[in-house]
Automatic annotation (TrEMBL):
<dbReference type="InterPro" id="IPR024095">
    <property type="entry name" value="Vesicle_P115"/>
</dbReference>
<dbReference type="Pfam" id="PF04871">
    <property type="entry name" value="Uso1_p115_C"/>
</dbReference>
<feature type="domain" description="Uso1/p115-like vesicle tethering protein C-terminal">
    <location>
        <begin position="1"/>
        <end position="107"/>
    </location>
</feature>
<dbReference type="InterPro" id="IPR006955">
    <property type="entry name" value="Uso1_p115_C"/>
</dbReference>
<keyword id="KW-0175">Coiled coil</keyword>
<protein>
    <submittedName>
        <fullName>Golgin candidate 6</fullName>
    </submittedName>
</protein>
<feature type="coiled-coil region">
    <location>
        <begin position="5"/>
        <end position="32"/>
    </location>
</feature>
Length: 108
């Protein structure tokens, strides 16, 4: 799951870099007297739509993986309870060190 998350992060960063490059090219074309038939907004919208589609595919893949892992946890928890183990005690603290940092950008 971590590798899937890293893959999604890498894909997002790649899209951000491509977007930055396209915006830089657009600015250069505008300042250099770009041809009037060049529809810059349409190009940006198309690139944005493509990036959104790719992100949705990656997100769906991650959600499938998350669902599979949750199913495993539920099955194992049930079996451990049947064997007399305290599942909550076993799970206490697991994942605390891997929590994602809060996104400060949303608070701005």
């Amino acid at each position: 799951m971590e590798s899937d998350l890293q893959s999604l992060s890498d894909a997002y960063n790649s899209l951000e870099q491509a977007n930055f490059q396209l915006e830089r090219e657009v600015k250069a074309l505008k300042s250099g007297g770009a041809t009037p038939d060049l529809d810059i907004e349409a190009i940006k919208a198309e690139a944005r739509e493509e990036a959104q589609k790719e992100s949705e595919v990656e997100l769906n893949d991650l959600l499938v993986c998350l669902g599979q892992e949750q199913s495993k946890v539920e099955k194992l928890s049930t079996r451990l309870m049947e064997l007399g183990e305290d599942v909550d005690k076993l799970l206490d603290g697991i994942g605390d060190e891997t929590e994602l940092p809060e996104d400060d950008e949303e608070e701005d």
